[in-house]
Amino acid sequence: MSGDAQKTFYLETFGCQMNVHDSEKVVGTLIQEGYRQVETVEQADLILYNTCSIRDKAEQKVFHRLADYKKLQAQGKKFGVLGCVAQQEGEKIFERAPHVSLVCGSASYNKLPGMLVQLEGKSAAREIPRPAGENGVLQDDAASVMSVWNSLSPEPEAWSPVPESRKPEAESLIRITGLDDRQTDKCFETEFTSRLNPHRGYITIIEGCDKFCAYCVVPFTRGKERSRTSASVLNEALQMADLGYTEIQLLGQNVNSYRDPDGKKSFAELLAAVGEVPGIKRVRFTTSHPRDFGKDIVDAIDAVPTLCDHVHLPVQSGSTRVLDAMQRLYSREQYLQRINWMKSARRQISITTDVIVGFPGETESDFAETLGLLEEVGYDGVFSFKYSARPNTPALSLDDAIPEAEKSRRLDVLMSKQKEIQKTRYRKYVGTECEVMVEGHNDARAQWIGRTSQNKTLNFTAPEAATPAVGSYVPVRVTASFPNSLLGELVV
Ligand code: SAM
Ligand code: SF4
Predict the structure, then answer these.
(1) From the centroid of its chain, how far is CA 433?
(2) I want to staple 200 with a disulfide (CB 3.0 to 4.6 A). Which of 76, 247, 389, 489 is the partner?
(3) Whether the predicted pLDDT of 135 surpasses 60
């Protein structure tokens, strides 16, 4: 174990579930390296931000945070930027925030222990030779992907101190980068995951993305698509079950693009196998890409009761013309075919989605098609976003940008429409009985917080004599509905 047992770190996470889970693994790694996690920036020797750059607002947050705490550098604290902004901005972060010492993209997390040693100044600065195969020799199907990355970034330097020519003026500043692993075949697998919740936990089964949607930074920030073996995933699921976890959420930018490197299991088969691990009561998976969404996934949900009856299937737009411009690789009709598979299932599958409004060139009539699609599908939830121009992405070169005010108007229209749809859909649950996992207690409202298999929040009251345990599964009768949640009473 390296590091001083007294060394402390603070880690703040921005962004998606992938980032939340990456942070759990980063925390585990740091603890293993002798660090102790603390609750505030003031208590920490090392301050880390795990960042998100999916939209401009998310990216700006980290620079505000870094500016807010810059003064703490005088106390000898060190700062590190991890994740998507780190990968996207690279060494430019050192210029914008000179008090930062460590910049590390998610594809380089396997190298964190070595970088921490360097950060502590415990070893002489050294250049780590890049392993054979990572240096420009491409896998067949990765070649086009890599040519895009390589055209954007300078020749990789492996993780290393900043070269002499770019050394900061202040000699005392340490600058360490982990930015050159986007073509790696390795996932960030560690036995030292510090999970936040003792009842439900994430397992990443696939990292990166090769889809290159016209608006999206993820392929540039998270690197090439790579899957873990099904054996390794199942092993982790078994370990979690042994530790008392009852709910597992399989994660990936496109979880259903999963390809077992050993060729043993398809995504649907892996899903079913995780659902059959003794002790596991619920399995979720997110996010699914419509292009790779096969009917076998619906069949698995029908066949294995532990698989939750909820699918998040981002559509982005209801117009095939816009979907083509977004390079989404499916049409409105193909998307609706997937919806029909789910609606024809024996179980009632709840469907949620993501929508982007104001993509360049989106006309009123394209937008009307999206509104029509919301109606036709009847989603139980929609995450809607205004299009945000991102560095490196093909959409930057598209004409016909939609003015910000018009994007906001479309977002408002879409959100109000969806609110009405949800009101109607949630109302149908009143009078029914649902099993919930108890997530906690809201003292202010004197209500228990529960989550249904369909991923709906169902708050409920319970008699004092029948206080439910957090993490347990209990039956609740629904008595009222709102656009985003249900209310009920424990069935005793
Ligand atoms: N891989 C998933 C898929 O293809 O549906 C999506 C993952 S992405 C991290 C989450 C969501 O962010 C996307 O579904 C999209 O709606 C939104 N998003 C991505 N890039 C965006 C951009 N440039 N502007 C606005 N929203 C964006
Ligand atoms: Fe981004 Fe598209 Fe990949 Fe999803 S599939 S992560 S939206 S590039």
Answers:
(1) 31
(2) 247
(3) no
Query: Does 410 sit in the ligand 1 pocket, CB within 6 Å?
Result: no
Question: Is the CB of 387 within 6 Å of ligand 1?
Answer: yes
Ligand 2 contact via 208 beta carbon (within 6 Å): no
Measured N-to-C along each axis, helices 267-275 and 230-242 cross at an angle, to the nearest 10 degrees, of 20
DSSP run (H or E) holding 310 = strand 310-312
Q: Which residue in this structure is represented by tokens 């700062």?
A: 79
Q: State CA 288 to chain mean position distance.
A: 12
Residue 436 structure tokens: 């919930």
pLDDT band at 172 (very low <50, low <70, confident <90, very high): low
> Probe ligand 2: pick from 149, 221, 289, 393, max atoms within 8 Å of CB?
289
Best residue among 204, 216, 328, 357 to mutate for probing ligand 1, ranked by most atoms within 8 Å of CB: 216
Q: Is the pLDDT of residue 54 over 50?
A: yes
Residue by residue, DSSP assigns 167-213 as --SSTT---EEE---TT-------S----S-SSEEEEE-EE------
Between 134 and 88, the higher pLDDT residue: 88
Q: Does ligand 1 have an atom closer than 6 angstroms to the CB of 216?
A: yes
- The rounded percent of the chain whose pLDDT value lies above 90 is 85
CA proximity to 414, closest of 391, 436, 385 = 385
Q: CB of 388 closer than 6 A to ligand 1?
A: yes
Query: Cα 195 to the chain's mean position, in Å?
Result: 15
How high is the mean pLDDT of the chain? 90
8 Å CB contact between 473 and 437: yes
Q: In what order do the strands lie in the sheet with 200-204?
A: 200-204, 247-251, 282-286
